[in-house]
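Predicting holo structure, pyridoxal-5'-phosphate bound.
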Amino acid sequence: MNPKKANKSLALETQLVHVGNDPSQQFGYVSPPIYRGSTAIYENIDGMKEIMQDPIKTQFPSYGRYGSPNARALEQALAQLEGGYSTVLTGTGLSAITTALLAFVEAGDHILMVDSVYWPTRHFCDSLVKLGIETEYYDPRIGTQVESLFRKNTKLVYMESPGSVTFEVQDVPAIASLCRSKGIITLIDNTWATPLYFKPLHHRVDCSIHSGTKYLAGHSDSFFGAIICNETVFPRVRGQALKLGQCAGAEDIFFGLRGLRTLAVRMQHHQRQALDMAEWLSGRPEVFEVLYPALPSSRDYALWKRDFTGASGLLAIVLKPEFSDRAVEAMVDSLELFGLGHSWGGFESLAITSDPSTFRKKENWSNKGALVRLHVGVENLDDLKTDLARGFGKLQN
Ligand SMILES: *Cc1c(COP(=O)(O)O)cnc(C)c1O
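Done. Tokens:
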């Protein structure tokens, strides 16, 4: 399913409109039908035997868990957008992460994990101790000095850039090249940037992982995860997903494909709004620091500018340390347009408090002020600023 209009030589915005979709195969309808199914019928025994020989189940028909036509379309679309060989879909972003990790590690191995990683990823890695796998957390700004942490049993280096909640940008090209030269696998959580704004596989990362729940689906109404793989590691990751029984739901995949069609315009808008908001926030007297790498005054701006082609709508502020946690909670509670909720990447604005000092290594997070993470949605920006300004008023009480 790759019509001419989705040709790789066309601009990404154009590819997004057509990739993984071929109306001529669906009676001319612009959007594909949702294939729901567990069982698919083989033509005959010989056909069944041939397909069953395929250990990573790339052929049809076989069984719904191994992938529907919709799943294949989304897998191919994401691989094309990020320059991967193929994609493995899972039920959630977190299961994409756990599946990719388990594909590569075994008892006795050592994982180097970025300290700014999404907290549930950390929680999972810490649980791997019981399987005899050790996880060590490294400073997101370590760059190639990560080499000093390599051991004989270091199997993989995991990155997330920018980091969850605190938004440090990593030197992904340098770390990935170093690891490739040492035979160490690299994985990255690329959810923040989406396939539009950062392409890890172009920098020699082995797998780029997405929580499709966020911008890809884009409407806070579905869940899926994606592991975009290079050709070498794909069979291994697909094989692990099959062993674990991972797959994504039919409707969630449909929403993922549909989300791609408008991804470029949504991201451009989130980016414009978030950058304006970040600049406004950095002028507010209550704010100690704005954590958003696309902000020219931010610490990681140069690295972001070098490697990324855009920024999304997720950022954080660190408030001045004089405001108590209680005051900051009152501020967040008073917001009317920013919903208090986990996740992000939908059309709506969100705010949530987080205290990295409760889970990060002390040397990598020393801020004293309270942190509030903001997702800047597509509402009118002045309305959003008015809401936040009213909220800041609550800090003084
Ligand atoms: C939300 C999120 C995930 C997990 O995705 P789910 O679909 O909620 O399981 C993984 N990584 C990052 C950076 C996220 O923000």
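The longest helix spans residues 250-282.
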